[in-house]
Give the backbone structure.
Amino acid sequence: MQTHTILIALGAVLLLAGVMGGGLTLKEMKLPTLDKFSRALAGFVGAVFIGAGIYLERDNRAAVDEPQAGISQQERMRREEESRAAAEHQKTQALRQAEIERQRREEAARIAELERQRKERELEAERLRQQAAAAKAAAERRRQEEDRLAQAKREKDRQEADFTRRALAAPKSNAWLGAFRIYDPKTSRELVRGEVSFGPTTHAENIAYARLRIDDSKLRQLPAGQLEATKAVWGFMGGSTDSAISIVFGNAADMPILVFNKLTKDSANGYLELRGVLFLTQGGKNEVVAHTSASCRAR
């Protein structure tokens, strides 16, 4: 039992004895009856003992509480420090997390931009590929069309060449058309310009038809316009020949007679070249008034 407890207990007994005057029995203790002096002394001493016990108890409690208070203060400071550190750590973590989130968003935006650019490049590449494919297809169509036209032209040329070759081989069996000129025999000045056409032979040496279209003329006997032959034959002066054509226009006494007495087959160019003279009947006589030429193709 501690000292302050004993002092308090003893002081309480003495104080009780002083107050009550003795004659009490506490368990195995019996207090005698006290006179006034003894009661006063017992009460004073009991009060002193109680006061001393209380003082000692308070000192002991202070002595015990003082280290505990120190430990609690240190613990509180430590906890406050830990709390501040935790708060700082949490703040740092929040800032770090925010920075990570910002970087993540920036990275996502960068990736999205790269993806957009990639898609744009793919679309542009696809557009260029389609344009190239379209251009290639168009070029192929043009090439095929050019090949077709070239083939058609070659076929046409071949057919024309075959037709011309056969026509030149048998000129009497074909119709002919060409530009012709009439020249002054002395000065070679052009007198008549136009077009001559004649058909194949019908029977004997007779030609089915012969026409002369005059575009421009300086001869009074051959005015501009269409002249239809009254007679056309392969031959000259009533004789049949493969090297001359005689064409008579009109029945008048001064009727013009066109005679091609020189025929040349230009196989390279497909022309039947005609050279001859123009006769005019004057005073019952045929007189040469001009030279003629014509370049004809088979029709």
In short: Helices lie at 3-20, 36-169. The mean pLDDT is 82.
